[in-house]
Task: structure prediction
Amino acid sequence: MALAPKNQFRLATLKEPNYLLFLFSLAVSMFYVICATPAVGWRDGPELVVTATYLDIAHPAGFPTYNLLTKIITWLPLGSLGFRLSMFSALAGGATIFVLGLWLKKIHLLDSHTPPSLPWLWAALPFLALARPFWAASVEVEVYSLNLFFIVALLYCATCWFVGQSIGWLMAGGFLYGISCGNHAALALYLPVLILLTVWGGPSFSKLGLRNKSNYTIWMRILILAGLFLVGVSVYLLLIVRSNLDYLPINFGQPNNWESFFYHVSDAKDRNVHASGILAFGKLFFYLGFHFRNLTSWLFWPATPFVLAGLIYLWRRYQILSVALITLIMINMGFFFYWIDGVSAFLPSFLAWFIFLSLGLGQFGRWLGRFFSARRSITAAGALILVGLISLGPSRFYEREIKAGFMATELFWSDFASLPPETVLLHSSNWFSAVALQTIYSVRPDVSLINWPWLDDTRNSPTFSKQKFPMIALPLAADGQPLSHSTPGYSSLFLKANLDANKPIYIQFSNEAFFLSPYIKPELNFRWLGQILPNELTSQDAYQTGDFEAYLNQTATYFDDLALGNDPPLAQKAPAYLFYIVRPVLEFVNGQGNYQLAEKIIRRFFERFTDPSTGRLMLPYDAALNAQAFISELLFRQHRFDEATLELKKLIELDPSNAYSYLLLGISLASQGDHQSALDALLTASKKDPNNPQITIKYANYLAKYHSIQIAVDFLNEKINYFKRHGLTNAALTTELFQVCLLVPPEEPSQFPAPALSETNQVF
Amino acid sequence: MNAKINPKAFVLALSALILLVFLAILFETRAFSELKQARTAVAAGNFEAADRHYFQAINWYAPWGSSQTAAEELYQMGLAHLREGRKQESFHSFLRLRSALIAARSFYLPRPDLIEAINPFLALFLAENKLGPKADHQAITSEAAVYLNLYDQDPSSNQRWYFLAVLGFLLWIGAGFRLIFIYFKNPNICTPPLGLRSMNVWAFVFIYGYAMWIFAMKMA
Result:
């Protein structure tokens, strides 16, 4: 029976593999969206959200193509700006899968002798989609997902030209290459691959060779391609045009002249890092082994034979393509040699290896076709797709929490929201997150957020202006005009101007803001502030992995090596800053109940910064008080009362007005049997904080215990009246309740023997 | 449906529909889950957690549904704090609400009525905080006016120039590709056929888009 038109259409849809590939890519994108980070994310994510929203200048090389394309999705009236950019990465990831699938299909159609099986070529796609590095790039705000899309699209253009469609594909590739270099300048490194394809490639290609092409043809191609590339790469004009504007939230390096422009787009800031990697021949084999292990682990060890089979197939059939892909891997690994923890840097290599894997699987499918029917072979490929989805999908789904938290937004929120009006907040390594809070969330428009290493860094920092920071005070020259940022000692002048204008100045250390104003002396040269930045960056790894001892060691060594020996003003301040840096670690360890480690850290700190002649801590007053209180309470919590007593006495010496120190001292002394001193300490505590019912009850408790219940009751009567007179209702009620407990003896328990008198005393 | 329907258009329309339904379900379930947690926190008197969950519910902003309810409830909670004399808590609730709505901005600012209602309170709170409780009313009012000026600035304004910049960019990129495929039709010939009428049109679009891109970027 003939099929009805409706059914014919349905069959046509299902039989057309491109539609299936499209729907699969859509499903992959939707899965990425489920896992995508909901807010601004970490590391460069917050910066990219800001630069996309305002078409700003991001860190080198600036990413203008990314900013212009993602600006479109910032208008989508769904979710927050941060999540919209995560969705963009997810869509770019799905699009990469789709174009790669089309490219694999083209290879299948191209080969008339030994065509790899199409279902088996595509069977590898779920493994790519769910492989950790590719998944990670597709669920966060980053440029890498779009970068891979461009690489695959360029490969597609080159292959279309090879199969003789038209030279327009090659020229479109050149134009696209220029645009894609605007997404990530590292793509420019792959120019040798493009030259290779342009010079040796061509319609009906197979083997490497010039094959009768005239010099004129080759030079014409190169010239036109170079021109189109330059037109595409002119997207970088965004940097020059936008960096002249005063009010951009992020204007990294302010590349508004050709010199700073080339410095920025060539990432000269990190030149040494890359150069040292390339020149590290001594460790060549170590790093090669590392990368090989990494790549194979991303694809699974059992996949290695298929990778080799794919490589051999490509070499035998399309030599030029295999050479191009191997060149891509070598350039990628050579340039990012040292970045062993930067998974995203090696995504192009990973993609090339994955292509070999797909082709190997395609050949395996063709080989299976000799023994089994096409239907069985397709079923087996479908089973492999299912294995990929089932084995990797759930683990990626559960991993989504790593990316999907709001932590990056919440980390600074309470600090930021609670700052006094018109604060000048000096920030450093987490500056991108703070900028996102200020510009994307507009948390506190009255707070001026300053990247403090930039105060003395005219190379990377834009000019400070009132248009960008309406509430800051700018240092003025004698003629009343704002001083140039390149004036020597600008940081000191800037801070002095803001101190004179009564602006509170805070500094952000390890996710906590500290009030800095009392420590700033106008004559102090703040150029050393920039030196703290590398310390924060290097020790942060130890902090994040929870190796707090390593963290402390790195931080302390840094201060010893860089600061204490070289800079007398810093030598005075270093202990305070070190304490501010380690305090969050101490609080975290303490909160976890790991008192031993907390004590070890604070003791090291005390050893390092106690003046041997006076026995006092070389800290500014409030930091010393903080450190002393910390160790006292730490010992007290561990019931090491004799040591706690000594430390508490030092604390009281520092701050005789603190009633809480006397309370702890009283309890410590009582525990050691010094009852009279304990009572004296508690009486002092009660006098220093007469409104505190906790101190009142503790003192009355000890009076009852060491003198008599009547004396305690009289004292309590006096205090109850005091609380009532001062309207402290809750304090009066609590104290009355305790008084009742003292006056009413407990009932004799019917089932247990009555406790001995000494035990009863212990209860009170 | 009949056989004349273009399968490509059908698959695209179907995909768009699937994507839309998927996003609507995703946003609503996540917003509702946060809203529920916020209500639990309010019932337990944990206002800091309530602020956080309301804020995160609004993060799943859609022009309808639970995120809108969350914005309304957070505003009411801030007002309740204010009525009961908890100025600090009310400041934090309003700050959260304002930030969440601003972070959800598109070519428009969601719920500008709420933001307009909140800003004077935030400005006054900051002014009182800066000048202290003994400052006279006149001084506080003039200080608050400075803050209000800052807080009233609409970060979603000026989108017209941004839109033109992006449109210009897409125009010159699109026209560039079109020109390439018009010029270079043959497999291995680099000499283009000149004088094509369609080429002139696309060349004009390219130049126009490029100029618009540069000019709008300068103005945005």
